[in-house]
Amino acid sequence: MTVSTETESPVEIGVGLGTPLRLVLVYGHRESSRRAAARIALASCAEVRAVVPADDPRSFAELAQDLRDAEPDAVLACAADGKDVAGALVLLEALRLGCAAQRPPPRVLALGPDGVVERLRAAVPPFALERFAGDAAAVAALRALRRGGDEGRALREELIEDAARSLAASTAADAVVVDVSERTTSCVLARVGGELHAAHVGGLGVGEGADRVVLHAGLDRVRRWLPWPIDAPALLDRVFNRARWSGALPATEQALGIEMALAREAIAHVLRDAAYAGLDVAAMRAAPTALVTGRAASFPRRAQTLLVFVDGLEPTSLTAVLREPDEGRAERVALVASLRAERPVTLRLAHATGRDDRRVEPGSFTLAPVSGEVEVSAASGELRGRGHAGALGLLIDARGRPLSLPPRDAERIPVVAGWHAQIGALPSAAR
């Protein structure tokens, strides 16, 4: 993987995805416990196989069977106070019944006050329980499990987080990194002050994780992004074939369009998980600088990366977009101006060749051919800022947020094809 924030001097770093980690989440009655468990799971890039809240309605036998089917490598228990102990004890009993014969046995990680965790420790044998004082220590322990004992291995999510920090430091502003690979998808926000909001979802991607995208999003949500008609069975067959071939590259424009559709839904799914965990998704969408990496940055055309980014993340302000493939140099792609216009708006542009005004109609999606540094301001006052136009120029996106698509194919396909054609993402869409 290549990680850099400047086009002149990228840094080559060896990186691995690590061993998939099957995780079960257990949390108490407080909202803070649920969010803590979700944050740790996202930060560690674990594959959550089961979730057990304090008021879980399942019977003891059902819970034990579900845990057996999950085959967890680890169980993360977040207990805020004594009220959570009773539910956690039931879970541990079900874990004993369901997973006592599992080899190796699952590890139990607990966060909570000393007294609460000690009560759980007395009930956890034959499993070992490890107590952690905070989120960071628990994330480090789960990442160590994913390294499989190889402490010298750099995990992909760690490099993505380093890239976000470097980008925020070099631009002196918030920065977001969006990464879509074969079987992981990440959205990481780095704040100027050093705060990090990291969401990594394992088993979700455009290759081996393609079937999981369909499982979570549904086939119709993937199909809606395609600028041509395709029936559900044919699309499902293509997706599951793609999941079988690791590292395969799309040989046709249709295959590429399907990968782009999967990437959009993978990003959207990570953002939903991030919101569930209490991460600042609004700040991710409003970050003035964004870097796209992985397979989403490796599409043949810059416009394809740009379209996947704006449709998946749905930025809400003025965003300078860069992309950096795993085996390539960083490059500036475009400057995105997102407008929530309910009536026509005048957009004022100041750039190296002069100044001009553009009338923006609600729902429009156009690429203005400007270059270099551009100062953008809307007469309505909702948008103002400065950024680099990159190789493609200024993308004016007035489709609104959240982005909505017509439900019927006859209405939706021409709209989606028009978006592709406007920025030259897929040649056939223009035809």
Walkthrough of the structure:
With 431 residues, the chain is an alpha/beta fold. It folds into two domains: 22-147, Cobalamin-binding domain (Rossmann fold, 3-Layer(aba) Sandwich), CATH 3.40.50; 158-430, 2-Layer Sandwich (Nucleotidyltransferase, domain 5), CATH 3.30.420.40. Helices cover 39% and strands 24% of the residues. It has helices at 31-44, 60-70, 85-99, 114-123, 135-147, 156-171, 210-217, 219-223, 232-244, 253-276, 281-286, 302-313, 409-423, 427-430, and strands spanning 2-3, 11-12, 22-27, 47-53, 74-78, 107-111, 129-132, 175-180, 184-190, 196-202, 289-294, 318-324, 331-338, 345-351, 354-360, 365-368, 373-378, 384-388, 394-397. Helix 1 (31-44) runs parallel beside helix 5 (135-147), helix 3 (85-99) packs parallel to helix 4 (114-123) and helix 7 (210-217) packs across helix 10.
